[in-house]
Each structure stands twice: as C-alpha cells, then as structure tokens.
Amino acid sequence: MKQVKEITLKQMRRKLWLLGFFKIPMIGFVKPKLLKLDENESVVSIRLRRKTKNHLNSMYFGALAVGADIAAGLHAFYFADSLGHKVSFAFKGMNAEFLMRAESTILFKIDQGELIKKAILHSAETKERVNQPIDVIATNSKNEKVATFVMIVSVKVK
After folding, report:
1. pLDDT digits over 2-53, tens only?
2. Which of 11, 87, 103, 127 is the 20 to 30 A CA-CA neighbour of 49?
3. CA-CA-CA-CA dihedral for 80, 86, 92, 95, to nearest 10
4. 42-46 sheet: strands from edge to edge
5. HEC sequence for 22-82
6. How many CB atoms are located within 10 Å of the residue 109 CB?
7. Contacts from 24-31 at CB under 8 Å and sequence distance 24+?
C-alpha cells in the first residue's frame, strides 16, 4: 500500500488556480475560492458579480454548475495526490434542483469525501472505472439553501 501524503489547503488552492488558468478557463472566469478541504468536507464560494450574474441579477446557471463541479471534484485531486495514484476523473452526470434565486455569494458544500476516497481505492483494486454520486448543497449568505446537486463522479486509477 502506498504511503499517505499530507496535502495542505494552500497546495489545493494553487492547484485550483492552475486548473482554472491552464486547463479549464471557465473555472478561472468565475474565480471560485476554496475555503475548506479535508478528508470529508469541501467548501467553495463564488461571488455574485457581473461575470456570474444573469439578466435577473441572480447567479447564472453556468456559474452554479461550476461551483458544484469544483466542490464535488476537488476530492478526486486531493485523494489522488495524498494516496499517490494517477487518476482519470470526469463527471458522468448531474442532477440539479434550484430552490430559490442565488442573489449573493454562494457556498457549495459537500461532506462525502470519504465516498470519493473509497471509489478511488476500489478503482485501484479492480482497475475499473467507478461512478459515485455526490450531494452538493449550495447556500446563500443567509445560509438558506438555494440549490442541491447530485454530481456523479467517475474515477479510474491508471
């Protein structure tokens, strides 16, 4: 078994910035902030500003999708680094329910990091692609739930 490596929040913030700058420009465009990332939880915020607003002055669907994508996906990078695996990672599906307008900075939270770790370990064992649904909750500055997402994270250890 590979040795577990400690990954800091600062390292993951830099990785997110590099990802947005070089690989996925949409991430760089909405400028998400990584507030928390540990074994089980991740919290990402996206500010409501001109680039993330729609014509109704609420957060645009695409910006909300980017937030859910990052909150659910960062654990794949986190565990790949900490476990020393090379992981092919993508989203296989997404289900979203919008409960109210997102008219402030939005926090995207997950508390299912362990499920992603188990999926990576299972993939390493079987050499097969593993799909894992992850729940993402989006809340506004008043801590009201504005949207829920189910992101189907698909991982395969190379």
Report:
1. 557 788 999 999 999 999 999 999 999 999 999 999 999 999 999 999 999 9
2. 11
3. 10
4. 33-37, 42-46, 106-110, 130-139, 145-157, 87-98
5. HHCHHHHHHCCEEEEECCCCEEEEECCCHHHECCCCCECHHHHHHHHHHHHHHHHHHHHHH
6. 18
7. 26/62, 26/66, 27/66, 27/70, 30/63, 30/66, 30/67
**Domain 9-157 top-level CATH class:** alpha beta
Amino acid identity, residue 72? Answer: A
Q: What is the pTM of this model?
A: 0.93
Q: What's the number of CA atoms in the CB half-sphere (13 Å) around residue 26? A: 10
What letters, b where the CB count within 10 A reaches 16 and e where it falls short, cover 131-146? Answer: ebebbbbbbbeeeeeb
Backbone angles phi, psi at 121, to 5 degrees: -65, -40
CA distance 108 to 136: 6
Structure-token pair, residue 55: 């014509």
